[in-house]
TrEMBL record:
It comes from Paraburkholderia ultramafica. It holds the Pfam family Peripla_BP_4. InterPro entries: Peripla_BP_I, SBP_2_dom. It comes from the Bacteria. This is Periplasmic binding protein domain-containing protein.
Length: 216
């Protein structure tokens, strides 16, 4: 797929997930491969004995960003922690009911889950499904600081959230557009946001302000 807009001198930037062969002039977003590798490292470090089953979930296997996270996570886990095995419950599309059912079916009652890496959404549903079959993972890594994830961090249900600053990504996208139109030198184009590991004790202030006080 090639972006026609470039042929009429309209620059196109991809964000959130990249489409490398589209003809876009740049990608301004999270390095998803780095995010997946970071999640694997955190889980291995979090577990006193890194062995057992790790539940992984993607909202949609066709979402390139999540696919890159999964590939990198799997590779890093295999390289660093070969005794950790993956249990895949992907495909819930971020819908709670579908996600919950997929987790129950994938895990069953015989597989003990020591950690969870959720590459998409539906973390409340994942936790409900695990709780319903008597599972409490030692470590749960999620993505993005939405309202649910912030509350789950505050409650100690999520160990960490991999976050990136969308404001910085939008600035970078604007820089690329300005550079395309020769309004900004290449040296002035800022980088995309880095992976930030957010725990219950370092939730960014602007996120706290956006969502207000913790739930009672």
């Amino acid at each position: 797929m090639h972006i026609v807009r470039l042929e009429v001198n309209i620059p196109v930037i991809t964000t959130f997930t990249d489409i490398p062969l589209s003809g876009r002039i740049a990608y301004a977003g999270l390095d998803n491969r780095m995010a997946g590798a970071t999640a694997a490292y955190l889980i291995g470090q979090w577990l006193a004995h890194p062995e057992g089953n790790v539940l992984v979930t993607m909202s949609n296997e066709r979402f390139r960003g999540e696919e890159e996270r999964e590939i990198s996570f799997r590779d890093e886990l295999r390289r660093r922690y070969p005794k950790l095995r993956l249990v895949d419950a992907s495909g819930g599309h971020g819908v709670d009911m579908q996600t919950e059912e997929r987790v129950r079916r994938a895990v069953g009652r015989r597989k003990k889950i020591v950690a969870v890496y959720s590459m998409g959404g539906g973390n409340l549903a994942i936790l409900r499904a695990l709780q319903s079959i008597g599972q409490t993972p030692q470590c749960f890594i999620g993505h993005d600081l939405d309202r649910d994830n912030v509350q789950l961090l505050r409650d100690g249900k999520l160990s960490a959230v991999l976050h990136h600053d969308l404001r910085q990504d939008m600035r970078t996208a604007c820089h690329h557009i300005m550079h395309f139109h020769k309004l900004l030198p290449a040296s002035a184009v800022g980088p995309s946001s880095s992976v930030v590991v957010v725990t219950p004790v370092n939730i960014p202030q602007y996120v706290e302000q956006r969502f207000g006080k913790p739930y009672p």
